[in-house]
Design a protein that fits this description.
- It comes from Croceibacterium soli.
- This protein is an all-alpha fold.
- The protein is built from eight helices and no strands.
- α5 packs antiparallel against α7.
- It is rod-shaped and about 90 Å long.
């Protein structure tokens, strides 16, 4: 109380230190705002890629159900292609296979014709997989570099804080804790940007691998169907066939016990 009275009597106000994110950014100037803006752009770009790729993958999985339920019920590949959505990955494989079939008759060697059709389907798969993988390198780059960008902001902030402390001639805890704590905020922001990007990259990659497996199996079925002139087709799984299989599995033990 005596100190406050003496300070008021002397007309001197007690010094007040203002700490916070905005204060740190204002003191950091152009460098701090540039680093923060870079991290914001990286975060927005990561979530944009995550959402768009997730929608694209869900669409491919949804279209695959139509392939399994209706495509192989058609008499020919051309007829089955009309049941698939245009500009879809599955329609692209069928169209490329039909185009390769139209060209393979020009080859006199049967082995070369088979290799030609197999190579055409492989190229089609590769183009689809490349399209699915677009944008994922950005997620990998964000996950790898965002912590270091945030650390750069922290280093610059601590350097600035040490200079101010040296100019003030005092290294008390109230002059050290605030500036250093504000500088560490940039590292935290960098981690908040990097962690979601890494998780999104790994998740999308695993889903792309599953799509790649489905595409490879579908192209193999198409190649077998073409080379066998429509005789070889995969088993179409429907709700009716699943129910019939379950009923047969239940009645089999009963029949065996009676025997």
């Amino acid at each position: 109380m005596l100190i406050e009275i003496l300070a008021a009597a002397g007309g001197e106000a007690a010094p007040q230190n203002q700490f916070g994110f905005m204060e740190a950014m204002e003191q950091g100037g152009v460098i701090a705002w540039s680093i923060f803006g870079t991290l914001v752009i990286m975060s927005v770009g990561s979530f944009y890629i995550l959402i768009t790729k997730l929608l694209e993958q869900n669409k491919i999985f949804r279209q695959y159900k139509a392939v399994r339920s209706s495509f192989w019920r058609a008499n020919t590949l051309s007829e089955g292609a009309t049941k698939l959505e245009k500009n879809s990955a599955w329609r692209q494989l069928v169209d490329d296979a039909l185009a390769a079939e139209a060209q393979h008759n020009k080859m006199t060697d049967n082995l070369e014709a088979h290799d030609w059709m197999h190579g055409s389907l492989a190229r089609s798969e590769a183009s689809i997989n490349a399209r699915l993988a677009s944008g994922l390198p950005f997620l990998a780059s964000v996950g790898a570099t965002a912590p270091f960008i945030g650390l750069l902001g922290t280093v610059i902030g601590i350097y600035r804080a040490l200079i101010n402390i040296g100019l003030a001639g005092s290294a008390s805890i109230d002059k050290v804790a605030g500036p250093v704590g504000e500088a560490l905020i940039m590292t935290a922001i960098g981690l908040l940007v990097a962690v979601p990007a890494v998780l999104a990259y790994n998740w999308l990659q695993s889903r792309n691998r599953r799509i790649g497996e489905l595409l490879s199996g579908f192209s193999t079925d198409i190649l077998a169907n073409i080379t066998s002139r429509g005789a070889v087709k995969p088993t179409v799984i429907t709700k009716t066939s699943t129910q019939q299989a379950a009923t047969a599995a239940k009645t089999a033990p009963a029949t065996a016990s009676k025997a």
